[in-house]
Amino acid sequence: MSRTASYYDLRDALADPGCPVCRLMARSTERYLDGLLWESVNDPGVRDKLRQAQGFCHEHAWQLNRAGASLGVAILMHDVLGSVLGAMESARFQALPAESLRRAQESLDRSQPAAATADLVARLSAKAECPACIQVGQMEEIYLSTLNEQLLGEDGLLAAYEASDGLCLPHFRQTLACLRDEAVFQALLAAQRTLWARLVEHLSEFIRKNDARFRDEPWGDESDAWLRALGALTGARLDAGRA
Ligand SMILES: [Zn+2]
Ligand SMILES: [Zn+2]
């Protein structure tokens, strides 16, 4: 079976700690943001998508706070913020008639959005998803389908998977959602159960050794189980540049 670049990426990532797909997504994000800053700041298509999205999501916006990024970020945000300001031009408070049904409903239920400001709220809402999320999401799908397709068989990823920390719960769920082969399902499920059963044992051991009666026992593999459990349930957190 011919192996794709994503197979080799996965095999390498499985040798490192934490969810391999989280790790590869962190790397994809780095590459995307670098490419954006160093090559695409003046690309009209990129600028347009960014205006539609009103910039980046919270996570990706703050990943742009990095060495050497200031000018590129300033140029991009100048454009986006200018467009946001443009959307606020000629905005007005669209007061409802005193006897209108909507006004009566709003006065009874304060959780309803105010109709008077709805037009401006809509204009200030993003029309497209964060472009970094779109790009990284495409890579995520490629890696998850590669894991499914290249798990079994000669040189398949199963052995590397069994020796790894496994997928995080969100990625495990996501890969199951596109899994249609029973043999792959059985293999992946068995591997994941073994990995998480061991993590649960490590957590028990961590808790036990925190008891004063066992304080003198040396720490083993369980010493960072609490961090691995956070990563297993929510996804690995890999700092920019160190992924
Ligand atoms: Zn993950
Ligand atoms: Zn994003």
Please give the count of helices. 12
Strand/helix succession: HHHHHHHHHHHH
Taken from the alpha-carbon principal axes, the silhouette is extended
Q: Helix share of residues? A: 55-70%
Identify the quaternary structure here: single chain
Count of β-strands: 0
Give the total of domains.
1
Give the termini distance in whole angstroms.
29 Å
**Ligand inventory:** zinc ion
Briefly characterize the structure.
The protein is built from twelve helices and no strands. With about 240 residues, it is mostly helical.
Keywords:
243 residues, mainly alpha, binds zinc ion
Structural account:
With 243 residues, the chain is mainly alpha-helical. It has helices at residues 5-14, 20-39, 44-52, 58-63, 70-88, 101-108, 118-123, 131-149, 158-162, 169-177, 182-209, 225-234. The longest helix is centred in the last third of the chain and has 28 residues, at 182-209. The radius of gyration is 24 Å and the shape is extended. One zinc ion binds at residues 56-57, 59-60, 130, 132-133.
